Structures are given as C-alpha cells and as structure tokens.
Amino acid sequence: xSRRARxxxxxxxxxxxxxxxxxxxxxxxxxLRSRFADDPRFEFGxxxxxxxxxxxxxxxxxxxxxALGGDPAGLIGEQIGERHxxxxxxxxxxxxxxxxxxxxxxxxxxxxxxTLAEFSALLDLDESQAATADPRALIEEASxxxxxxxxxxxxxxxxxxxxxxxxxxRVASQVAGYVDAIAAGLGRS
Length: 189
Prior knowledge:
The protein is α/β, with parallel strands linked by helices. The protein has helices at about 5-10, 25-35, 60-65, 80-85, 95-105, 115-120, 125-130, 135-145, 165-185; strands at about 10-20, 40-50, 90-95, 115. The protein starts with a helix and ends with a helix.
C-alpha cells in the first residue's frame, strides 16, 4: 500500500495554532475534540508559534473552556515544529498573521493552513453533502476556493492573554462559533 493510500485511511490530523498555546488554540482544540468525540475520522492537537512550553492553560481561558463544557486538565503549551506541520492535514490559526507565519516557517503547509474564520466560511456545504464527503477532499476544495473569502480584522480571534474575563468570554464565544460552523461543515452538529 502506498504512503498516500495509508495517509487517506488514517484520521485527519487537525492542529490549532495561536501564539502561546495557552488560551485560544487549546480552547479551539478541546471544542473541536468535543464536537467530534465519537468520530474516528479526526484527531486533534494544538501548538503555539511562541509557545509557553510546558505551561498549563491560562486560568481565565480555562474557565471559559469549562463554561463551554470542556476540560482543561492536562493541557500544556507546546511549540509548533516541523513535525507538527508535516503531520497535520489541517492547520487552523486564530489570525491572518499567524496563518502567514505558519506558511513562512513551513512552506509545504500552504494548502493546509487557514484561519478559523476562513475555513468555517469555506465549508458552506449543506450537511447531507458534508456528512458523506471525505474530509481531506473538503480541505482540498477549501484550498482551491480560498480566494472566495475576504477576511478582515474582525475575523481574527484576538489574543486575550492578561485581559479581563469579559475579553476571554468574547474570545471563547467567537472561537465556539467558528468551531460550530466547522463541525457543521464537516458533517457534525
């Protein structure tokens, strides 16, 4: 069996990325994990561009994750490296500048890197199509259609580190909205 054929049988590896990997990306990872809990087609991880390696999830972000039904236990900051980028079938960043930085550091990932807002907007298939579609084919289609989405500053998920709980709540709500749209677009509700 070819490497490509084996890869198509393996779960789709989704990596969420932010700056420190202690607020936004672990929140997105855990929310995606909860939406796809019983779906063997996917596996999830997170990393940071300037990770606070080994640090637990930020307490304010962790409270938001708990409020959304997630569990921050065991989440620790991890620095993104080439092995992360190479292993990921889909890389979801919080901002446009983070997306661009991932591509700059790992050029081979260019067709697999999107912001949360961008990917959620590109998954506009109806649920019956998405439920039967190959997730890798949906990622490839999203890459081909990338130019159809225009993003602005409001689409970026701001960094809430050291911000008030209200900011963390807004960020968590924004991330959850994107995650829900992605889950629906990939055939989950």
